[in-house]
Amino acid sequence: MKVLLFNGSPHQKGCTWRALHEIEVTLNKNGIDTEMVHVGQKMIHGCIACNKCNSTGKCVFDDIVNEVAPKFEAADGIVVGTPVYYASPTGTLKSFMDRLFKSTKFSKRMKVGAAIASCRRAGSIASIDMLNKYFTMTEMPVVSSQYWNEVHGNTVEEVEKDYEGLQTMRVLGRNMAFLIKAIAKEKAQDGLPETEERCWTNFI
To answer: How far is Cα 58 from Cα 56, in angstroms, rounded to an integer?
Structure first.
């Protein structure tokens, strides 16, 4: 069982990384393999709605999105971490997530997803809510913790003092490991939930 952790911060070992690292260590202690992927410093083009991925199965921009896609398909869950910029995730991470979810045509249902945010003071909830939308529209169960999935601090040293925030990350990691194992057990025993043919309703 494996979880990918996406670091959307431009700083490879900054506050967002520190929060993700706390989750990663906890997942490992609970028998889940992990891989941290730093996307925050990449030059990632936004989706241009060309729909080439519908016929080729991959994004027309051949970058980290296409590199990560097969890892995402094989993973049991993902954690997406971002610092807060103008009460939102970073633009780089947003472009990455848009293209990753748009260009990958494999089913994401019952893969487990979690979003976390790092902020100095505020804006974390809006950022987490935005990232959770990728999960909730693709049948990915969202992992919760004992509070909002956030840490506070302007430096790694300040985040180290956010005992509540780091504890929230550990609880998140344990809950995620439990949920992944529970889904795997139920999938092996009874299979995934019944599906229906997709309906599309358009109002003009």
So the answer is: 5
Which pTM does this prediction carry? 0.95
What letter would DSSP give residue 194?
A: P
Count other C-beta atoms under 10 Å from residue 167's C-beta. 14
Whether the CA torsion 167, 137, 37, 180 is positive or negative: it is positive
Dist. CA 16–CA 179, nearest whole Å:
23
Altogether, the residues listed in the chain come to a count of 204
Among all chains, which residue has been given the structure tokens 């990915």?
140
CA distances from 104 to 54, 59, 119, 128, 195 (A): 9, 8, 30, 22, 19
62 sits in the region (left: phi over 0; alpha: psi -120 to 50; else beta) called beta
The beta strand positions in 8-111, using DSSP E, are: 33-38, 77-83
Express each pLDDT in 168-203 by its tens digit.
Answer: 999 999 999 999 999 999 999 999 999 999 898 988
3-class secondary-structure state, position 77? strand
Whole-angstrom Cα distance, residue 76 to residue 27?
A: 12
Kindly list the strands in the beta sheet with 150-152, ordered across the sheet, starting from the edge strand earlier in the chain. Answer: 33-38, 2-7, 77-83, 112-119, 150-152
How many helices (H) and strands (E) would you count in the chain?
Answer: 7, 5
163 within 8 A of 19, measured Cβ to Cβ:
no
What pLDDT does 203 receive? 83
